[in-house]
Amino acid sequence: MHRLLERQIKRSRQPDGSLDAERLVTLVDRAYEEADLERERQDRANRLMSEEVTELSARVRAESEAREQAVLANVAEGILTVRDNGAIERANLAVARMFGHAPGDLVGCPLGNLFDAAAGSGVFEAVGHRKDGSTFAVECSRSVLTEAGESLSVCVVRDISLRKETETTLRDATAKAEAASRAKSDFLATMSHEIRTPMNGVLGMVGLLLDTELDGVQSSYASAIRDSAEALLQIINDILDFSKIEAGKMELEKNDFELAPVIESVVEIVAPRAHAKGVEVGCIVGADVASRVMGDAGRLRQVLLNLVGNAVKFTESGEVTVEASFEGYADDGRARVRFEVRDTGIGIPKEAGARLFQEFVQVDSSSTRRFGGTGLGLAICKRIVQLMGGDIGFHPGEERGTVFWLVVPLEVADGASTDVLAPDLRVLVVDDNPTNLRIFERQLRAWGVQATTAASGDAALVAFVKAIADGAPFDIAIVDHQMPGMDGEALAAMLKALPQLASTPLVLASSDGPEALRRAHTSGRFDVVFTKPVRPSALRQAIATHARRAPGPARATEAPPAVVDDVRPAPEPPAPLPARPPTAAPPPPPAPAPSPPPAAVAEDGPRKLRLLVVDDNHINVRVAMGYLEKAGHRVDAAANGLEAVSAVRARHYDLVLMDVQMPELDGLGATKAIRGLDSGRARVPIIALTANAQPSDRAMCLDAGMDDYLAKPFVRAQLLQKVDEWSARAHERFAEEEEAPAPGLVTLEAELGVEATRDVVRAFQEGAQRHAAAAATHDDLDALARRMHALRGGAGNLGFEAVVVATRAIEAAAIAGDAAAVEASTPALDLALSSACEQIARYLRRLDATEASGIRRAS
Known about the structure:
Elements: H1 2-12, H2 21-74, E1 78-82, E2 88-91, H3 93-99, E3 122-129, E4 135-147, E5 150-159, H4 161-210, H5 216-246, E6 255-258, H6 259-276, E7 279-285, E8 292-295, H7 297-313, E9 318-329, E10 335-343, H8 377-387, E11 391-396, E12 402-412, E13 426-430, H9 434-446, E14 450-454, H10 457-469, E15 476-480, H11 488-497, E16 506-510, H12 514-522, E17 528-531, H13 536-546, E18 562-564, E19 610-614, H14 618-630, E20 634-638, H15 641-650, E21 655-658, H16 667-675, E22 686-690, H17 695-703, E23 708-711, H18 716-739, H19 743-752, H20 754-777, H21 781-798, H22 801-815, H23 819-852
Parallel strand pairs: 7-9, 13-14, 13-15, 15-16, 16-17, 17-18, 19-20, 19-21, 21-22, 22-23
Antiparallel strand pairs: 1-2, 1-5, 3-4, 4-5, 6-8, 8-12, 9-10, 10-12, 11-12
């Protein structure tokens, strides 16, 4: 304004510089008027702008609200805002549709009308209530906002009924699948038992039949039955193993075992089949392979047996060898052992290699194939090796045939050693079969021994003479039995006749029968007699024991030669030793300690035992009794668990062979009842003989109190091996019990005196015989009941509890008029009375011995 006045004053001055006041006033008034007009224009412009801004804001707010409503209306989840008092402030269209309400009906309604709201915030599930009264599952995610001191809950609601239905369907499907799996396992277990039970009878009775005198045709028929039954059993075993692997139920054991006997037992099992085809079979264990390892010996034997059995099956001529070698240490410190099974058979086409280890696949699947099988063997081997942490494969042989290999990590057991002999040992091997020469030579060189081979007796004599001339005589010679021209016995006779060579230790390796081995043994020309295939461990021990410069115990010149003709696998240790902690690079095993010499054949054989076979299948009973009685044992039989308990209570047994599935009382219940007896007979060894072959069945038997387990069908060697293993323990366990007098008789003697007790027990013996005869006839049941009552009283006074139990059962049956029950209970009474009479006889013998020695007891 000041500048405006200055400008108007300047315009109002006259030329002479004077001020025109009137003009100045006019100009100033005009300026004020212009300013007022400008202010009015500005005010109008500002009002218009404000109106436009307000309208724009309203439009933006309306669009935002419309967009928000559109989002809320179209979102899949229900969205609610809830005030502090639980009233719904806003709800989108999804909530209304979800709960069956019209849009807008939910505003102001309590949230509890829709579902039970959880206190606080978070995600929870609840039961939703629709307007029509139906319910469904909802999931709510609730968060709490606070504005101006007021709380507002925002809930996001989802309908999860479909998800719940899906979960229920999945649970039902899973339950059905598990039930189907259990049904399948139960079916397999049942079928295994039902098939193995008659298979045990077939194999057992055929084995007994082959031991009788048969003509050529009969023998060939019986052998065909045996071979077919064994093939069927192998199929059953493959199917069971495959089902266990598929179900993830195959578990590996970890035991301390000797590696060499496992390999040797595999070779011995297939040797008869190989020799029948003219195929030589042998095994080689590298010197750097630890003697004792930790692992599952049974599964390792199963894999090797499958591979070696296949090799023999597909090899018409030549050889099959198994070789074990050390391949370094794994990262966890375990020793990696490589096994190779080599054959000179038909070989495997390259195009078949990719599918060789697949299930139900055979190399030759044509309708004209020569070899059968399930196609599961190699697939099972691969699964087992993978469970062990190893690998398996194959490649063609150098000239012909196939090489199957597997590498398995095994923990070296404490105290393990390697089989390295003195490096300057000189061994001559004489055999007309080049395969045998190669096997012996490779094994000897693996032990660090200098091996020389001769293909005939004449060549052997030349080698002997040359070695003497060179001043390096052989320390020991391994001689084949049957050779063209000069056989092994003729060569040995000639060597013994030459003074320079007579002192050379000789080992005979023979494929002939037991009689030829016995003749060679008694000839006095051989230090050791082996049956082929020769176990490397036994051969090494023979060299260590008999070679002139070999390490090991000194050889007694007067000792008879050992005959090694038992081909049964050595029993594994009963319990594993503690494992060593793994190391990155374990030190090499120590030098070998001398192992015991090969066991000579005992003159009088194993100790004869009193055995009880419990089985409801009479064929299986006959098989077991046939095997055991041929071995010289005394055998009783029981048809169910109740009879077994009565028999054990009434008589001493060295061993009980118990079936599991039986009527009236099964083997598990019978074992528990026997273990609950008051006498020392509760400790009798019990071996389960059952067709149930699952690992859980073995654990179930052991948990019930059984001492060991043998799956049906079994061969004679397996059964006799089990009996031999437990015979020594049984002898020690019951020696004291057998010698001890009956406790009841001792008590009676203390009360009545010696002479009175003698008269009482003799009277009991006489009465027991009469009562037992009456029970056998059971013509007059009333009289029989009185007899059993009287007999029970006498037995109770003498402490014969088994007689008391048996007579009580017969008395009750006689009173009830049940002649069949009387007849069924009579065998138990016979056993109980027999045991009581044995105890009385021992008691009387003790009295007689006491009187003979002049010792008198106070009456």
